[in-house]
């Protein structure tokens, strides 16, 4: 085992672990367990809010899969990755203060709380909880696999042992610390990511003999690498542009992101988070994907795309700095997994169990159930990840797209269109998920329908379904309550 | 539980405007990104011009495009967004010091 690399990683895991303990102690002082465990009592300031949004969103695909794709495809993939800059400002501006005000009125702790109160429909709640559980669970398992692979490639441990370490370190702080532990560790992890990507980018550029030399090498190997069209000219402008929906504006509808848009303390925190988030997400995406392409002339012939970043880091950096830098992708995976874990847990415990199975549960019962279930979910993900599926980025994007198609219109239209009603929401979710699955398999078999990413058509079709069904069953205009609902 | 007569929350007006600003920023972002990438990047790679070592399309679309968005977001945050209370006034605050 390479202790010079492993030591910084261990230190990092220990810090994260202590944050979990600290959050647990802090939670003991809060009046409402559920609001604290699943939402951190809505107390986050600008930096924590920005970092937790970026870190939740930036996952294995931003740090391993994405740069790996840039390594094989070239600058077309860098261009594609830059669509994600929008997530920094778009989510917080579009959900914005309306979402913050309304969810406070509703006393909502989860995204589904909002949908439940807005549409007053059991079907909407169960559909949303179901799709969160199915899609986010698969995303979570994919991240679990990524985390284990990374620990495996750094330490030389067996895959199962690496998976065990990853599971244990995430489970402990999420289970006992809840949302606050997740958000605070996300902040630490976000800083690690920003600093790590800069160090690695500089080292890669220096090692490659400067930017001009790197581009000359790339152009002489295959000129397509420095065009926006991919190494074989396979990426059309339309296809890359359709990623604006998947990883740009569509991110607004990801439950793990949306729930953060109701977690901040006040308007000032939100303003600050918009600026910080835009800077941080842009820096991370640009740096990581540049590193991916620039790694190509330095280390040609890496076969497994996910290993590009660990290998280039170990190649161009002294071991202990590589350890710090590689804490970044580990941090990215942990910070995604922790949020997903908590969110899936909240969907089951808060949205299904508490709403429909046992509404009278006491605070203490809720506490035991929440923590117990969060732990259980982690263990199940661990067991599934022992037989890992191969394409990490693929599974992850599958979950992204499915959730976006399901939630984007019920969420956005529910906020901004007064004629939105439950029939529209249900139709929109069914059409969104249904067409997503159908088109996904169609695209796999016959190539991309109309030359765009799978998510594009379901988002358009679910919009049409939303409008048509809302108007078909048109009742009166919905008005948000003028005063807060007590004790929802 | 709910009042029959409804008074539109005045904060919503501001919130709606800010949501539209978010959409506006995204549209500017997409146009800039697309225009420079495919405006400058469509010709054969041999004819590319380079700025600071980067092909011009990458430099303008990915790097300058990002900086322009940061500048626009800064202007919006600093001069356009409005500070307002998010809680309803009669509600007791659930806030603890961080």
From TrEMBL, chain A:
Keywords (A to Z) from UniProt: Cell membrane, Membrane, Transmembrane, Transmembrane helix, Transport
CDD domains xrefs: SLC5sbd_PanF
UniProt KW Zinc-finger keyword: no
Pfam assignment, any one: SSF
Topology within the bilayer: Multi-pass membrane protein
Record field: transmembrane: 6-23, 44-64, 70-95, 124-145, 157-179, 191-216, 236-261, 273-295, 369-386, 392-412, 424-443, 455-473
Cytoplasm among keywords: no
PANTHER family hit by this protein: SODIUM/PROLINE SYMPORTER-RELATED, SODIUM_PANTOTHENATE SYMPORTER
Protein name in the entry: Sodium/panthothenate symporter
The organism's taxonomic lineage, starting at the top: Bacteria, Bacillati, Bacillota, Bacilli, Bacillales
């Amino acid at each position: 085992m390479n202790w010079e690399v492993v030591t910084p990683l261990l230190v990092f895991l220990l810090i994260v672990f202590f944050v979990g303990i600290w959050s647990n102690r802090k939670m003991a002082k809060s009046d409402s367990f559920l609001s604290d465990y699943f939402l951190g009592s809505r107390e986050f300031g600008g930096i924590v809010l920005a970092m937790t949004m970026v870190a939740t969103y930036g996952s294995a695909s931003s740090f391993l899969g994405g740069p790996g794709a840039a390594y094989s495809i070239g600058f077309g993939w860098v261009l594609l990755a830059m669509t994600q800059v929008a997530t920094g400002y778009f989510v917080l501006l579009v959900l914005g203060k309306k979402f913050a005000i309304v969810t406070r009125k509703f006393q909502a702790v989860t995204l589904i709380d909002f949908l439940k109160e807005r549409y007053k429909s059991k079907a909407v709640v169960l559909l949303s909880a179901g799709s969160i559980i199915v899609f986010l669970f698969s995303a979570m398992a994919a991240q679990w696999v990524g985390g284990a692979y990374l620990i495996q490639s750094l330490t030389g441990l067996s895959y199962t042992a690496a998976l065990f370490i990853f599971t244990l370190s995430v489970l402990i702080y999420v289970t006992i610390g809840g949302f606050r532990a997740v958000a605070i560790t996300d902040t630490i992890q976000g800083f690690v990511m920003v600093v790590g990507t800069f160090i690695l980018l500089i080292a890669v550029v220096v090692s490659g003999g400067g930017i001009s030399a790197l581009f000359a090498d790339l152009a002489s190997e295959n000129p397509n690498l420095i065009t926006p069209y991919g190494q074989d000219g396979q990426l059309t402008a339309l296809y890359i542009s359709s990623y604006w929906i998947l990883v740009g504006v569509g991110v607004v509808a990801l439950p793990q992101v949306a729930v953060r848009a109701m977690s901040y303390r006040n308007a000032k925190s939100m303003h600050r988070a918009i600026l910080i988030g835009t800077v941080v997400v842009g820096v991370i995406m640009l740096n990581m994907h540049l590193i991916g392409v620039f790694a190509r002339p330095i280390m040609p012939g890496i076969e497994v795309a996910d290993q590009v970043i660990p290998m280039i880091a170990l190649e161009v950096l002294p071991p202990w700095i590589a350890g710090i830098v590689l804490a970044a992708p580990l941090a990215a995976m942990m910070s995604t997994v922790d949020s997903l874990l908590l969110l899936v847990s909240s969907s089951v415990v808060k949205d299904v169990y508490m709403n429909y199975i046992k509404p009278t549960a006491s605070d203490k019962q809720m506490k035991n159930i929440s923590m117990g279930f969060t732990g259980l979910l982690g263990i199940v993900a661990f067991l599934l990840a022992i037989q890992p599926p191969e394409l990490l980025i693929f599974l992850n994007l599958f979950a992204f797209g499915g959730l976006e198609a399901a939630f984007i219109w019920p969420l956005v239209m529910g906020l901004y269109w007064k004629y939105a009603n439950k029939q529209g929401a249900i139709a929109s979710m069914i059409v969104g998920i249904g067409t997503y699955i159908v088109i996904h398999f169609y695209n796999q078999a016959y190539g991309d329908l109309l030359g765009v990413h799978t998510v594009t058509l379901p988002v358009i079709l679910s919009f049409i379904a939303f409008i048509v069904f809302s108007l078909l069953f048109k009742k009166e205009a919905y008005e948000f309550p003028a005063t807060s609902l007590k004790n929802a | 539980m709910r009042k029959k007569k409804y008074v539109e929350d005045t904060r919503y007006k501001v919130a709606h405007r800010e949501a539209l600003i978010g959409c506006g920023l995204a549209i500017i972002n997409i146009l800039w990104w697309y225009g420079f990438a495919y405006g400058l990047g469509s010709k054969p790679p041999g004819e590319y011009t380079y700025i600071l070592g980067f092909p011009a399309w990458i430099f303008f679309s990915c790097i300058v495009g990002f900086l322009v968005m940061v500048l626009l977001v800064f202007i919006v945050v600093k001069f356009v967004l409005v500070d307002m209370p998010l809680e309803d006034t009669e509600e007791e605050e659930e806030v603890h010091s961080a």
